[in-house]
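User: Hi! I'm working on a homework problem where we have to compare a predicted structure to a textbook description. Could you give me the structure for the chain below?
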Amino acid sequence: MSATPTRKPRRSPPEQKTPGLGASLAPIGLKERWHGYWANQRQVGKQTLQRLLGEPASTAMTVLVIGIALALPLVMMVALSNIEQLGRGWDGSARISLFLDKKLNDRDSEAFASRLRQRPEIAAVDYRSSRQALDEFRSLSGYGDVLNSLDSNPLPAVVLITPKDKAPAQSRLLLTMLSAMPEVAQAKLDLEWVQRLQAMMDIGKRITLAMAFLLVLGVLLVIGNTIKLAIEARRDEIVVVKLVGGTDAFVRRPFLFTGFWYGLGGGLVAWLILQISLLLVAGPVSALAGLYDSQYTLMGLGFGNTLMLWFTSGFLGWMGAFLVVGRQLKEIEPR
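Assistant: Happy to help. Predicted structure tokens:
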């Protein structure tokens, strides 16, 4: 009995995979990553702003505290800037007073004043004779009866010099040169009030910088404490996000935007407080300037400084949140 050979089963040919069917992974390019990153930034920023606007009472209180803290040094800085500008406008009144020798008659005194007008380092010369000086002193002092009883005029002729170069060093150099002239009995530089004003301005600037530093620290603490409370209120939500694979950067982003919006809102409030303050004092300042025949007007921040204020306030808010949220998120981990 012969054995029948066994047939080997035929293998079916491998199925051809149709391209385009089934799941596949494709690499994401740098351009797509960049667009996705900024799209997420815009979305998170919009959502955090809507969340803050949905809680107007608590948001307004925090923003007002930040705005008042920023407005205090801001108002002082603008006030110092206006005083400094006013002082620069009055530098021309710091003049040199030349008291001429009483032996000179009016003709010689006027000739001496005319020669001074020709000097290139002198901007203006105001001559007052001894009689004019006596009449001015009589009208200002109120001692007319006493002066009328004098046998002779005790006041000399005066020449008021306005230096062309208003620098204190150049004014002192001109004073030394004029004092050496034989026609001058005494010379005086009326520059002490300018130096006192500059010294007071320096003190004011240092006080303003110290106050700004302390209030900036206060703003960071306020924003940091507010963000800390917001993190505690959303602790369960953060745990769930981390359980499904959310990174710390993803969790941190909404709180950073929250701090930024708080800071930016505080900057807007500080700007409004400054504008209201300028409007309140603009009228009295204009009236005072009119008494001195001046067209001086108050200066505000300007467009560039206003943008700098808003940028700085927003950055302070972001920084306050950044300093707190990283440490807080490390303490919140799923168990």
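For your comparison, note the following. The two ends are 76 Å apart (CA to CA). The first strand starts at residue 96 and ends at 100. Good luck with the assignment!
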